[in-house]
C-alpha cells in the first residue's frame, strides 16, 4: 500500500491516551482523520478545546466533531448526569459510576461509518485495559469483537482494523511513550470534574498523577 493512501480515523477525546494513539498512528505513516464526540459530559467544553489544539499540533486536515444528546437523556453515569457525584475517594467496588453505558461501542459504530466513507484502513482508539477504571468497553476482547462486527456490517471491499496500541500499557508507560514522541501533554485533559484546574482527586486524575509519579516526571497541567 502506498504510504500516501494510508488513513487512520482516530477517536480523540482530548485526553492523553487517545492523543498518544493518534501520534503513534501518524508516526506509522498514516494520514490522520480525527473524530471527537460531544456527549454532554461534564468537561465537554475543555475536552473540545484540547481536541482542536491537539489536531493543530498534528496538522490534521480532516476533523469531525459529532454532537450526541443521547447520553444526557440516558443518564446513568456521573459523567453525564450531574445528580450523580463523581467519586473522589479512590475506593469503588465493581464498575465505577463514571462508566458511560456502551459508550465505546456507540463511538466505534459511528467511527466505522466515517472510516468507510473516508476509505480509512484503520480506526485508532486509546483504550487501556490493565490500568483503566475497569470499564467493560475498554477490554481488548470487546474491541476485537467490534472489529469483526464492523467488517461484517460494511461493504465487502471495506476492511477496517481497529488499532488499540495502548491496551496493555500501564499509565506510567503511557507517560513515558508520550514524552518520547514529544506529545503536547500540557494540552491534554483527563479530569472528570473540572474544566479550569484539574481536581486531582477523581479516578481519572488519580490514574494520571500516579502515572507521572511512577515515570518520575511532573504533570504539566494545573491542579487545584
From TrEMBL:
Its EC number is 6.3.4.20. GO terms for molecular function: ATP binding; ligase activity, forming carbon-nitrogen bonds; zinc ion binding. Pathway: Purine metabolism; 7-cyano-7-deazaguanine biosynthesis. Zn(2+) binds at residues 191, 199, 202, 205. ATP binds at residues 12-22. It comes from the Bacteria. Pfam families: QueC (PF06508). The keyword Ligase applies. It is an enzyme of class 6 (ligase). CDD domains: QueC-like. Binds 1 zinc ion per subunit. InterPro entries: QueC, Rossmann-like_a/b/a_fold. Keywords: ATP-binding, Ligase, Metal-binding, Nucleotide-binding, Queuosine biosynthesis, Zinc. GO terms for biological process: tRNA queuosine(34) biosynthetic process. It catalyses: 7-carboxy-7-carbaguanine + NH4(+) + 2 ATP = 7-cyano-7-carbaguanine + 2 AMP + 2 diphosphate + 2 H(+). Its cofactor is Zn(2+). Belongs to the QueC family. Catalyzes the ATP-dependent conversion of 7-carboxy-7-deazaguanine (CDG) to 7-cyano-7-deazaguanine (preQ(0)). This is 7-cyano-7-deazaguanine synthase. The lineage of its organism: Bacteria, Pseudomonadati, Campylobacterota, Epsilonproteobacteria, Campylobacterales.
Amino acid at each position: 500500500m502506498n504510504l500516501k493512501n494510508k488513513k487512520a480515523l482516530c477517536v480523540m477525546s482530548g485526553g492523553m491516551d487517545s492523543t498518544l494513539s493518534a501520534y503513534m498512528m501518524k508516526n506509522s505513516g498514516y494520514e490522520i482523520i480525527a473524530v471527537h464526540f460531544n456527549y454532554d459530559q461534564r468537561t465537554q467544553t475543555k475536552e473540545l478545546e484540547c481536541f482542536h489544539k491537539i489536531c493543530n499540533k498534528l496538522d490534521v486536515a480532516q476533523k469531525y466533531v459529532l454532537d450526541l444528546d443521547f447520553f444526557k437523556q440516558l443518564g446513568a453515569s456521573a459523567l453525564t448526569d450531574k445528580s450523580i457525584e463523581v467519586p473522589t475517594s479512590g475506593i469503588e467496588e465493581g464498575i465505577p459510576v463514571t462508566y458511560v453505558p456502551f459508550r465505546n461501542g456507540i463511538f466505534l459504530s459511528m467511527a466505522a461509518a466515517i472510516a468507510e466513507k473516508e476509505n480509512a484502513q484503520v480506526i485508532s482508539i486509546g483504550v487501556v485495559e490493565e490500568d483503566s477504571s475497569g470499564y467493560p468497553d475498554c477490554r481488548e476482547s470487546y474491541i476485537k469483537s467490534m472489529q469483526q462486527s464492523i467488517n461484517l456490517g460494511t461493504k465487502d471491499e471495506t476492511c477496517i482494523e481497529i488499532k488499540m496500541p495502548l491496551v496493555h500499557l500501564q499509565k506510567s508507560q503511557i507517560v513515558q511513550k508520550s514524552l518520547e514522541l514529544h506529545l503536547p501533554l500540557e494540552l491534554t485533559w483527563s479530569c472528570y470534574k473540572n474544566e479550569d484546574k484539574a481536581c486531582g482527586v477523581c479516578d481519572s486524575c488519580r490514574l494520571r498523577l500516579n502515572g507521572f509519579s511512577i515515570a518520575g516526571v511532573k504533570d504539566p497541567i494545573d491542579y487545584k
